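Predict structure. Chain length: 146.
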Amino acid sequence: MKPFCGYNMADYMQHWLDMGAKGGDKMPSIFYVNWFRTDPTAEKKKFIWPGFGENSRVLKWIFERCEGTAGAKETPIGAIPDIDNGDLDISNLDVSDEVMQELFDINVESWRKDLELNEENLKQYGETLPEGIRKEHEDLKSRLGM
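Prediction complete.
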């Protein structure tokens, strides 16, 4: 967003934190989705999620989570479908159990590396970095055992 923001990014971040506080429980939930995990054993990049047509399964889970009718398991990065408990509808999906495990694996070491890069990025804001962003960053570090 930085190249497209017409004012200080720290102020921009604070604006959205303020919006969230004003909106309270009326604010939308936020979900992180990575459709682009690849098979590390393939010679050519091959996505392991079956593709666009199956994204509706994840969207269904998201809507059900918002309605309070679908379960999840907590991870250091947030709640994800517990595929062992059937939280995500995978009926008639041609994906092996191994691939499903890979799709929902949380690679803590990779997240730690990304968090270190993010920390370097956040340092540029110094004292202007909103406390809410700083706290969220520190909480994630703690959940990742850093």
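Summary: The chain has two domains: 31-106, 107-146.
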